[in-house]
From TrEMBL:
Entry-linked Pfam families: GSDH
Any one GO molecular-function label of the UniProt entry: oxidoreductase activity
Entry EC number(s): 1.1.5.-
Region (Disordered): 1-35
Organism of origin: Nocardia niwae
InterPro entries (alphabetical): 6-blade_b-propeller_TolB-like, Glc/Sorbosone_DH, Quinoprot_gluc/sorb_DH_b-prop
Lineage: Bacteria, Bacillati, Actinomycetota, Actinomycetes, Mycobacteriales
Location of the Glucose/Sorbosone dehydrogenase domain: 46-334
Keywords noted in UniProt: Oxidoreductase
Protein name stated in the entry: PQQ-dependent sugar dehydrogenase
Length: 350
């Protein structure tokens, strides 16, 4: 088994504390209180992407159903869109979501999903049909990538996977095994390493998390194979080594080594988020939330939080009010779901 893709010993979450019944206030300048969980939504089907709207509510994608739900503290989940053409098999389906930085004017939402023949990126308004921006990202039963996010430069970044053929990651002409940098219209962004190409970095196996620190540095999490999962500091044009290198050891061979590695049993890192000087990494197989101190692009010693408390953790995001939102992924076929899984949890900042 490619261990970073799943969990060979699914276990039911244990020791889950009572969830707060009221919405706790959050201080945007504070630090998320991981002992103050509040439940935003429950009974979801494999929630994957999560992106906030200007009013503080969020859109969440369900991988297998293709639905986009609007959720918020104190409100029942509401279906607001159905992405047409989603083909949910294996790890494929409706994956990442992003909200346009100018959403108040443009009303655009962006999605990465698996279609019948490929993975693709679309944009849409909640009252209209989708527009295909990028097609032809190879698909497979696993290693589809899928995380998308807008950077501080206003460009759309997308993490892709090798779709089970590792040679694609080193092929600059392939969209797979890469981080792509695109305009909101889906074109290759100006300033990319190769003019006219959307490829921003290469040599990735399966990018699952994207986040920026206060200085605008991009960090990415990706699944390893049998040995090491990674968090990388992404710089344009750099080659991160897959399939020639898994983990560290590529620095003397023209590759860029990761900032952090874990064994695949400890992590299988999916979504990541940064608030203040802390990087948060949601772990699937590891069933924990890693917190990592950051300082000028360097990392301190990781600390495991919420271990086995909520099961598999897929996505972590910082809300406009500074609260940390976290999605479980216990209904994805590799977990041991409780009766109310999957859930979206909120941890207010103090």
């Amino acid at each position: 088994m490619l261990t970073a893709c799943g969990d060979e010993n699914p276990t039911e979450p244990t020791g889950t504390p009572a969830v707060a019944s009221t919405v706790a206030p959050s201080n945007p300048a504070g630090r998320p209180d991981l002992d103050a969980a509040g439940e935003v939504a429950a009974d979801l089907g494999v929630p994957w992407g999560l992106a906030f709207l200007p009013d503080g509510s969020a859109l969440v994608s369900e991988r297998d159903s293709g639905r986009v739900l609007r959720i918020g503290a104190g409100r029942a989940p509401e279906q607001v869109y159905q992405v047409p053409g989603v083909t949910a098999r294996g790890e494929g389906g409706l994956l990442g979501l992003a909200v346009a930085p100018d959403y108040a004017e443009s009303r655009y939402v962006f999605a990465y999903f698996t279609a019948e023949t490929d993975n693709r990126i679309v944009r849409f308004r909640l009252d209209g049909p989708p527009e295909v921006l990028v097609a032809g990202i190879a698909k497979a039963g696993n290693h589809n990538g899928g995380r998308i996010a807008f950077g501080p430069d206003g460009m759309l970044y997308a993490g892709t996977g090798d779709a089970g053929e590792s040679g694609r990651s080193q092929d600059p002409a392939s969209l797979n095994g890469k981080i792509l940098r695109l305009t909101p219209e889906g074109r290759a962004a100006a300033g990319n390493p190769s003019p006219g190409s959307p490829v921003y970095s290469l040599g990735h196996r399966n990018v699952q998390g994207l986040a920026w620190d206060r200085a605008g540095r991009l960090f990415a999490a990706e699944f390893g194979q049998n040995r090491f999962d990674e968090v990388n500091l992404i710089e344009p044009g750099r080659n991160y080594g897959w399939p020639d290198v898994e983990g560290t050891g590529g620095g003397g061979r023209g590759f860029t080594d990761p900032l952090l590695t874990w064994t695949t049993a400890e992590a299988s890192p999916s979504g990541i988020a940064i608030t203040g000087d802390t990087l948060y990494v949601a772990a699937l197989r590891g069933r924990r939330l890693w917190t990592v101190p950051l300082e000028d692009g360097r990392v301190g010693a990781p600390r495991a939080e919420l271990r086995d408390r909520y099961g598999r953790l897929r996505t972590v995001e910082v809300a406009p009010d500074g609260a940390l939102w976290l999605t479980t992924s216990n209904t994805d076929g590799r977990g041991g779901p409780r009766g109310d899984d999957d859930r979206v949890l909120r941890f207010p900042a103090r």
